[in-house]
Amino acid sequence: MSKKSTSIDMTAMCDVAFLLLTFFILTATAKVPEPLPVDTPSSTVQTKLPETGLVTITIGKSEGKEQVFFGMKDRAIRSGALDYMAQKYKLTFTDTEKAQFALVDEFGVPIQSLKQLLAMKGTDRAKAGVQPGIPCDSIGDNNQLQDWIQAVRTANINEGATKELQFAIKGDAKEEYPQIKRVMDILQDQKINSFNLVTGLRGKDY
Amino acid sequence: MAELNTGDGGGKKGGGKVRSKKSNAKVDLTAMVDLAFLLITFFMLTTSLSKPQSMDLGLPDKDEKDKPEKDIKVDQRRTMTIIMGENNKVKWFHGLLEAPEPNGKPTDAQYGRNGLRKEILKRVISVPQVTGNKDKGLIVIIKPSKKSNYRNLVDVLDEMAICKVPTYAIVNEITGEEMKLVDEMNK
Predict the structure, then answer these.
(1) Which end is more exposed in chain B, N or C (fewer Cβ atoms within 10 Å of the end residue's Cβ)?
(2) Is B157 close to A197, i.e. CB distance below 8 A?
(3) Do B52 and A40 touch (CB under 8 A)?
(4) Percentage of chain A with pLDDT > 90?
(5) Is the pLDDT at B12 greater than 60, yes or no?
(6) CA-based nearest residue to A100, from A83, A111, A115, A81
(7) Alpha-carbon dihedral of residues A33, A37, A40, A45, nearest 10 degrees?
(8) What range does the domain containing B144 cover?
(9) Residue of A nearest to B41 (CA)
(10) Domain assignment of residue B30, yes or no
């Protein structure tokens, strides 16, 4: 019996592997860790969310409490928005803190404890229970969500953007309607009457 | 799986010529393939390929002073009201609640293709025939009750898009009579 060599020619396999690798590197966008994971409802619409000029308001439930998180897609307007908020709430942020804030995609803390959040490491911020959500009670004058919306719009104009910011509501599917309505009302109070609802994709035969 | 070097080693046999040592041209690619697949796995897991979809929603201006003086009266033959309740329950009626249109009494329904969509599609076709004007199509009034959830709202809005309902509105005021329906549904 002739003894065959056990080695296989790996060249083709290597080619395929690297081709796939190149494809994934080129097409992929890095997944952003979400501090408040939500399960979005699904729909059959095909329109995609815009890449730029987008502000996301995430509404979800964490540890049994309703939370609202705020996220800005464009890095350029983040520091401008922080300046506006700092002025409004009479706080000062150092340059390092501002630089740190420009890297934060989404956050959910009252402005008073933003300093502590920025001092944390990135991995600690995403832990559950660290961020309590942005206060957005319509009663009383602690409606910080409203101020953030104002801040981000002001920053957008100051940046010289020609396009209006788009607002997206990313709500958890199990969230009760009044919670969503409250955020919609805050947006509408500032004459933002058109916004996007973030949804997942539903199967074809729905 | 290393390559065995079999090119030489025989030594001289029979006083043949001295050949130059031929090095093996094959390189062992196993480790390289391992590495490549490891990287592929890494990139597949850490990246999000599908971008989330988004549904556009335009709401009317809330400002008081922009409101028209009087509420506009619409033909009740054109209106279909969908009331959403607790636990994915939904009720609909066609026309006025006191005097519903034929086959339009308040009815329980389900979300999806066999429930709500059938009823909406039927009326999308029938309403312009009844009114006799192509531009006067169906108007759907969506009334989410306090206990309804966000998924239901998106489901109904999705139905509007699927059925191509010409006019629809989200109305937050639920009248006393309609509240009774909600209570009945939530029971």
Answers:
(1) C
(2) yes
(3) yes
(4) 2
(5) no
(6) A115
(7) -10
(8) 75-186
(9) A21
(10) no
Kind plus residue range of the DSSP H or E element containing B107: strand B107-109
> DSSP characters for B161-180?
HHHT-SEEEE-----HHHHH
Q: Has residue B64 been placed in a domain?
A: no
**Mean pLDDT score of chain B, rounded to an integer?**
78
Q: Which residue of B has its CA nearest to A184?
A: B59
Query: How many Cα atoms occupy the beta-carbon half-sphere of B74 within 13 Å?
Result: 15
Mean pLDDT of B80-105: 83
Of residues A17, A27, A184, nearest to B49 (C-beta)? A27
Could you tell me if A13 and B29 are in contact, meaning their C-beta atoms sit under 8 angstroms apart? Answer: yes
ipTM of the complex model: 0.77
B6 contacts in chain A (CB < 8 Å): none
B159-173 pLDDT per residue, tens: 888 888 888 888 888
- What pLDDT score was predicted for residue A19? 92
SS3 helix, strand, coil % of chain A, rounded to 5? 40, 20, 45
- Chain B residues in contact with A176 by the CB 8 A cut-off are 146-150
Interface test with A, best of B33, B53, B56, B164 (most A CBs within 10 A): B53
8 A C-beta contact, residue B74 and residue B140? no
Question: With contacts defined as CB-CB under 8 Å, which chain A residues touch B54?
Answer: 45, 47-49, 168, 196-199
pLDDT classification of B38: cutoffs 50, 70, 90? very high
| Count of structural domains, chain B | 1
Comparing alpha-carbon positions, the chain B residue that sits nearest to A56 is B54
CA distance B3 to B154: 61
Q: Give me B3's structure tokens.
A: 């390559």
pLDDT at B150 over 50: yes
Residue B41, in any domain of the structure: no
Chain B hits for A17, Cβ within 8 Å: 33, 36-37, 40
CB atoms within 10 A of CB A94: 10
Query: In this structure, is residue B83 part of a structural domain?
Result: yes
